[in-house]
Amino acid sequence: MRFPLLLTLQALWASVCQTMQHYPAAWGHYDVCKSQVYTDEGLTWDYMACQPEAMDMTKYLKVTVDPPNITCGDPPETYCALENPYMCNNECDAQNEDLAHPPELMFDFEGRNPTTFWQSSSWKKYPRALLVNITLSWKKTIELTDDIVVTFESGRPEQMVLEKSLDYGKTWQPYQFYATDCLDAFTMEHKTVQDLTQHTLLDIICTEEYSRGYVWKNAKTVRFEIKDRFALFAGPHLHNMASLYGQLDTTKNLRDFFTITDLRVRLLRPATGATMVDENNLSRYFYAISDIKVQGRCKCNLHANSCVFDKEKLNCECEHNTTGPDCGRCKRNYQGRTWSAGSYLPIPKGTANTCIPSNIGPVTRVCDNELLRCQNGGVCLNNLRCQCTPAYTGLLCEKPRCESELGSCGGPNSGQAALSSTSLPTLLLLGWMLLRGASY
Ligand SMILES: [Ca+2]
């Protein structure tokens, strides 16, 4: 009679474990760099991979609009609506605060009515191109975590390029091309982010999706889709971040793709609303942008969980004995081994790859990732000790911690280990009740 009950218990246990494996909270947020733990050797630090929270990066940028005299209002100018050349009540005057449209208005608080926006002067020199570069500089490497969204107050441009720099503006690479006709403007085929696959994710595409002004005059945004690109690895609702983190860890190109120091919006041709440009009323053609959204986090190489804005510049608050604006090197006296970035793996805590004191070299190493391997799922920390899974102990995690107990020595990861401590008494109680019920 008791045999089927034991089977029931085992099935219950298995299903609880399975549920835990799909529970997203078990994945790390990577928001803690270290914590104190009790080990066989006493109280020590346990180091983990960590990163600052994603935030609104537009608060920390410097904006430059080029050419310098391209912002409207000097001299004052009156603009007409694109859709209606007789509706000319849009005034711009740089000397009048209420009528000025400086670049800062692309980054102020949105949601007010009427909206605030930057505006260019009009296309007075037609047919010469109306070119404007808007450069956003951070003086710091940052990692994009959400879509870049540019909201236009004018019609969306007929041609534009979004570019990025990874070297503080020395060199630029295109991120995406935008045009009403990709073939005509850039001799590229029209594609959308949905055409990309895991293998072509790094391809630079031209899209017509955000440029068709005349038909969709209420569509105001131009987007660079970061999340859709993440989804190629992490699934449609980004529920499998483990897969994405794994890829980011092992593929430098992929990591670099989402990393920037500067962004540049190159406006190449304004909305014209029709096939022919009305040369008698060029004040219908201009660019106006009400908002640019950039979400991201400081790149700290998984060695810092905060990033501070000091003297007009963002800086990682480095842990793990690292230093530098991106925690990109070991501190003095902590060069016992080569610096390396932290790692997202194994999930949920990752690996800190801390810098170790210079006088602790290979002589005293307890473990490494090749010869002196930690056993039974243990992780080598700083070459100094193995961090064992709950079920094992010993210098290299070679000894089972609870040989005498029956099959409940804890699972292979910390999520399940936590579960075993809280749920085992419940399960035993349940088993006892079932057995009692069976004996009546
Ligand atoms: Ca605004």
From TrEMBL:
Disulfide bridge map: 388-397
Domain (Laminin N-terminal) ranges: 46-297
Tagged with keyword Metal-binding: no
PROSITE patterns, alphabetized: EGF_1, EGF_3, LAMININ_NTER
Domain EGF-like: 363-398
Domain of life of the source: Eukaryota
Positions in coiled-coil regions: none
Signal peptide: 1-19
Keywords from the UniProt entry: Disulfide bond, EGF-like domain, Laminin EGF-like domain, Signal
GO terms of biological process kind: animal organ morphogenesis; axonogenesis; tissue development
SUPFAM superfamilies to which the protein is assigned, alphabetical: EGF/Laminin
One Pfam family named in its UniProt record: Laminin_N
PANTHER family per the UniProt record, alphabetical: NETRIN-G1 (PTHR10574:SF28), NETRIN/LAMININ-RELATED (PTHR10574)
The name this protein goes by in its record: Netrin g1a
Encoding gene, per UniProt annotation: LOC110490897
